[in-house]
Amino acid sequence: MIMRNFKRSNALVRPMETVKGFSKLSKEAKVEWLCSHFSDPESAYETLSMYWNDDEALQKLHDEFIENTVSNFYLPFGIAPNFLIDGKTYCIPMAIEESSVVAAAAKAANFWLDRGGFKTRIISTTKVGHVHFAYWGDYDKLLSFFEGHIKALLFKEAEPLTKNMRARGGGIKDILLINKTFEEPNYYQLLCTFETCDSMGANFINSCLEQFSRTFRREIENSDLFTPREKELQVIMCILSNYTPECLVRAEVSCKVEELEDEKKEYTWQEFVDKFEKAVHIARIEPYRATTHNKGVMNGIDSVVIATGNDFRAVEASAHTYASRSGKYRSLTDVKVENGVFTFWIEVPLSLGTVGGITTLHPMVRFALEMLGNPNAPQLMGLTAVVGLAQNFSALRSLVTSGIQKGHMKMHLLNILNQLEATEEERKVIVKYFETDTVSHSKVVELFCELRGVKSLSELKK
Ligand code: MEV
Description:
Layout: H1 27-35, H2 41-49, H3 56-63, E1 77-85, E2 88-95, H4 101-113, E3 119-134, H5 139-157, H6 159-167, E4 171-179, E5 187-195, H7 202-222, E6 234-241, E7 247-256, H8 269-285, H9 287-307, H10 312-323, E8 333-338, E9 341-349, H11 363-371, H12 377-400, H13 405-420, H14 424-433, H15 441-452, H16 457-461
Antiparallel strand pairs: 1-2, 3-5, 3-6, 3-7, 4-5, 7-9, 8-9
Helix pairs in contact: 4-12, 5-7, 8-9, 9-10, 9-12, 13-15
C-alpha cells in the first residue's frame, strides 16, 4: 500500500471569496478554483484527485449524485457475519468510520448465535405527510366541506400519481383535517398517511401532498360556501414528516439468565444481569446517559442505513423524536428479566427503502442489498433494528464489565499507528505488545519512540 505524506500542504492561504454561477462551471474549473486557495495548490489537487475513480462512468455517476462534486469521500465498508435473525443467518454490511463499531456488532452476533439469535417484528409501516395551512374562518364549515366534498376528490385527483404505488399494494391511506389553532392561531393541517411499500417514499409523498394542496385550494376558491376572507386560505408548505412513529419495528434477543455467564469467569451471570438492567434503567431516566446509549444504538443503525443507500439523517431525526415521545428523552432499548429469562429489545421507527433513491444506482449499495438477500423494506427494517440492538448490547456488556476503553482502544490502535506513520515492522511489534496490555495513546507513542531510538516525537520532526 502506498502511504503518502500530505502534511506539507493543504492550508488555506486566502479566504474563500464569493463566486457567482459556480454550479455551472465544469468540474475541472471548480477544482481549480478551490485548489487555488491553498498554500500548495498542487498538493490540494493531489488530495482531491487521488480519490477520483479511474472508471470514468463510475466517477460520473458519483459526480451526479450531488451538485458541485469535486471528489469522493470514502467510508470503510465492513461486514459483520454470523447474525442469526428470525432463523436465518446474515452477513451485515456496515459503512462507518468509527473503529470499534463493526467489531462490536460482530461480537454481539456471535454471542447471540449460540443463544437463539435475534427475532424481529414489524409493528407498522405507515408514513406521514402534511399540508400545513392557515385559514381565517369557520372551522366547522371547513370540516364539513372537507369530509363531504374535498376528501374524495383529493384521492381521485392524485390517482395518476398513486396508480403505480396502488398496483404494488400501497398508496394513500387516509387524509384528515386537523385543527391546530390551540397551538398556533389559524393553523390547520391536512394530515395524510401513506403506505409506500419498498420505497422510502419521500418523492411519492411530497408529490401527492402538492397535488392535494392544488385541489384543496381550488375547491375552496370555487365554492360559494366560503367568504372572501375564508377563500384566502394560505397553503404554507407541503412536506412529508421524517417522524415515522407508525413505521415501527421491534427486534429482541432472549435467553435463560444462566446463559449470560462469562466464559472467562470474570463475572457471574447474576452480576452481569444486575448491572445490565441498572444500566438500561439509567438510560431510561437520565437523558445525559440516554443520549450516549442511543448514540451507540445509532452507530449500528446508521452504518447499515448508509451501506444500503438510505437516508441516515431521516432515520436519526425520527429515532430521537421517538425516544422523546413520553416528553422525556429515553433509551430506545429496554430490558426485562422474568421467570429466569433475560429479554432485551429495541423498538425504533425506521423509514427505509430497498427500491428508488440511490439503491439501484450505487454499485456498493446494490452489493450490500444482494448480500442481505435483496430484502424488501420491512425485512430491511428488521435487519437494521437488529444491528442497533446488537451494538447496544455489546456497548453495555463492555461498559458493565471490562469498561469500554479496552476494546475501543484496541481497535483505535491502527489509527494511532497510521497517524505516526509507523512502518509495517513497527506496527507488528507494537500490535504484539498490546496483545497483553491495554492500549493508551501515550504508551503507543512511547513504544514508537523507543523503536525509532528517540526520546520524543518532536525529535523526529527536526
Ligand atoms: C461510542 O461510539 C458508543 C458508546 O458510547 C455507546 C454507549 O455508551 O452505550 C460506547
